[in-house]
Specification:
One of its GO terms (biological process) is translation. GO terms for molecular function: ATP binding; DNA binding; helicase activity; hydrolase activity. InterPro entries: Helicase/UvrB_N, Helicase_ATP-bd, Helicase_C-like, Helicase_Restrict-Modif_Enz, P-loop_NTPase, Ribosomal_zn-bd. By secondary structure, the chain is an alpha/beta fold. The protein folds into four domains: 179 residues, Rossmann fold; 160 residues, Rossmann fold; 51 residues, no CATH class; 113 residues, no CATH class. Helix content is 26%, strand content 25%. It is built from 14 helices and 30 strands. The chain has a ten-stranded mixed sheet. Strands 13-18-17-14-16-15 form a six-stranded parallel sheet, with helices on both faces. A five-stranded antiparallel sheet has the order 28-27-26-29-30. The longest helix is centred in the N-terminal third of the chain and has 16 residues. The relative contact order is 0.07. Bound molecules: zinc ion (ZN) (2 copies). The site of one zinc ion has 8 residues, from loops.
Length: 580
């Protein structure tokens, strides 16, 4: 069996890495790239014994089969597959079964390969960590390699510390040290290894989930989603009607529903003989049987609630209908990936996004939750090291960046043999104790450990004093006033507060940059025009963002601006922030 070139490259990068480094490593390959072949080849060429671990029996079987093609049959250790071998050179095991019988894995392995490795948590009592600790106690030099299509987790961030493109991953909570190989999806499609995804845009109806916010871990509240959907009965009917219409000429249809209740509603609208539903509560036997019937094309529509994202493989699927909100690009691509396997008689896979998730199929993972529905990934060069960062941002009709939400440069810089993240911060707050820049959400200064004041705590204190006013900024207007620039802030009650800037001397212009441009720019780190006149600023007013809150103090003649708050998310927040 001949490996495809990129599969060989993935294997080579792992070999090269482990020759020079004991660090744990990750290979990122999209769904359908043939991860099991890469695993099998690594198992074949390894000198020592190899343990391949994964969490679902389908993947155990698939990996064992591929190992068997390339080399002597692998032993399988999986209760779900009724096999318990532990003596072979290569063992393919389910983590659940292996961890329950750790003592049977007591002759040393030289390499452990984990498929779907984004599932490993750092929790030392988790199944993977328990087994890894055991394996290390037997061979302290055991090497750890992970494979995944989704190296970014909404709850934990990147699963690795460093990326071989010179990028920082997750410096604090990464399970793996290095990402050593990553293959994007596009070349696989171009070369015919995956079917072409085709976005369908003649939608009969669409859900609007934009009013519901995902938690920081990317989860949506089921009750909230159900509540929203309870007003969308008509849309659901129209959507299913269209799915049946389009589905009549398709081979297999997967429907991703938002909640169990939603899925049941969809199921009722489909013909009972043609449709089935799988949820987290479906028993293993029933699930297996439904998937078998679906693969045999006895069932055409398979509805699921968050279960068919990994380890499920039905190549004939040629319509993916997404009816659920999705907080990450990777998860969206993972769902789409279910339809990209190549199959006889299938030329492309139709993708219908009824939930208006608005992700491009080829978006890179940004590594941060999407700040709002209009955001797209934008490239922002670091003004210090010139690294091309990918951040969430907004672009105009020409594709020019009008705002970006990057905070710190993601470049990995080699310094005295040590890899370090570039220091440049696009947005920051300054530590009042030592003057160092910190992340805008930091609570403790990274340099001097001083407590950075929580804005709410500070506001509460200040507001207890006399003469202070919290100005909840609703709009910011640029006006010319006797050769001066007048910035007029308007609050939610319609009151205004004005700030004035002169442009007569160089010092005044410098002051304008220092006081206004630096903090109000939508595109920190990118060059701003050189201003010498008021009109020039007014002409480019779209480059600036309004603050959320102004803290004002009364004096004899009027009000003084004490402090300006951006990115404010505390309890004095105004509603208007989310309206744009
Ligand atoms: Zn940089
Ligand atoms: Zn400090």
């Amino acid at each position: 069996m001949q490996l495809r070139d990129y599969q060989q490259q993935a294997v080579d990068s792992a070999v090269k890495h482990f020759k020079t480094s004991p660090d744990s490593a990750v290979l990122v390959l999209p769904t359908g790239a043939g991860k099991s072949i890469v695993i099998a080849e690594l198992a074949r060429i390894a000198n020592g014994r190899v343990l391949v671990l994964t969490h679902v029996k389908e993947l155990v079987a698939q990996n064992a089969e591929k190992v068997g093609i390339l080399t002597a049959a692998a032993g399988i250790y999986s209760a779900g597959l009724n096999q318990k071998s532990t003596d072979n050179k290569t063992i393919v095991a389910s983590i659940q079964s292996a961890v329950r019988a750790k003592e049977k894995f007591s002759s040393p392995f030289s390499l452990v390969i984990i498929d779907e490795c984004h599932r490993i948590s750092q929790d030392k009592d988790s199944q993977y960590q328990l087994l890894l600790t055991h394996l290390k106690s037997i061979n302290p030099k055991i090497r750890l390699l992970g494979l995944t299509a989704t190296p970014y987790r909404l709850d934990l961030g990147w699963i690795y510390r460093h990326h071989y493109h010179g990028k920082v991953g997750n410096p604090d909570k990464a399970v793996f040290e290095q990402c050593i190989f990553e293959l994007p999806m596009r070349p696989l499609i171009k070369r015919g290894y995956l079917s072409t995804p085709k976005i369908f845009d003649g939608l009969s109806a669409q859900y609007d989930f934009s009013s519901i916010k995902a938690s920081t871990s990317g989860q949506y509240q089921e009750a909230e989603v159900n509540d929203l959907l309870s007003h969308c009965g008509r849309a659901t009917t129209a959507i299913v009607k269209q799915l049946v219409q389009i589905g009549s000429s398709r081979q297999g249809v997967i429907i991703f529903a938002a909640t169990v209740r939603h899925a049941e509603e969809i199921l009722k609208l489909l013909s009972a003989e043609q449709a089935a539903l799988i949820t987290g509560k479906t028993s293993t036997e029933q699930r297996d049987s439904l998937i078998e019937q679906f693969k045999a094309r006895k069932i055409k529509y398979l509805i699921n609630v968050a279960v068919l994202t990994t380890g499920f493989d039905a190549p004939h699927v040629d319509l993916i209908a997404i009816l659920r909100p999705t907080a990450s690009v990777s998860l969206f691509q993972q769902m789409v990936g279910r339809g990209l396997r190549i199959c006889e008689g299938k030329s492309e896979c139709l993708i219908i996004d009824y939930a208006a998730n608005g992700y491009d199929l080829y978006f890179p993972e940004v590594g941060q939750n999407k700040p709002n529905s209009k955001s797209v990934p934008v490239q922002v060069h670091c003004p210090v090291c010139d690294f091309a960062n990918i951040f969430w941002g907004l672009v105009d009709d020409d594709g020019d960046i009008i705002e970006h939400f990057g905070r710190r440069c993601q470049a990995l810089i080699e310094q005295e043999g040590q890899k370090k993240q570039c220091d440049f911060r696009f947005r920051s707050k300054v530590c009042p104790n030592c003057g160092e820049e910190n992340d805008i959400a930091a609570k403790i200064c990274h340099s001097c450990d001083a407590m950075l004041i929580d804005p709410d705590k500070r506001l509460k204190e200040v507001l207890q004093q006399k003469h202070h006013h919290l100005f909840k900024c609703d709009a910011m207007l640029f006006e010319e006033d006797k050769d001066r620039l007048k910035i007029r802030y308007i609050d939610i009650d319609g009151n205004d507060f004005c700030q004035y800037f002169n442009f007569k001397t160089k010092a005044q212009i410098r002051a304008f940059y220092a006081i206004f441009v630096l903090s109000h720019t939508r595109t920190p780190g990118l060059k701003h025009p050189r201003y010498s006149k008021v009109q020039e600023v007014i002409a480019t007013r779209d480059l600036f963002r309004k603050p959320d809150i102004l803290l004002l103090k009364k004096h004899k003649k009027g009000w003084d601006l004490q402090e300006t708050f951006f990115d404010y998310q505390g309890r004095y927040q105004t509603e208007s922030k989310f309206l744009n």
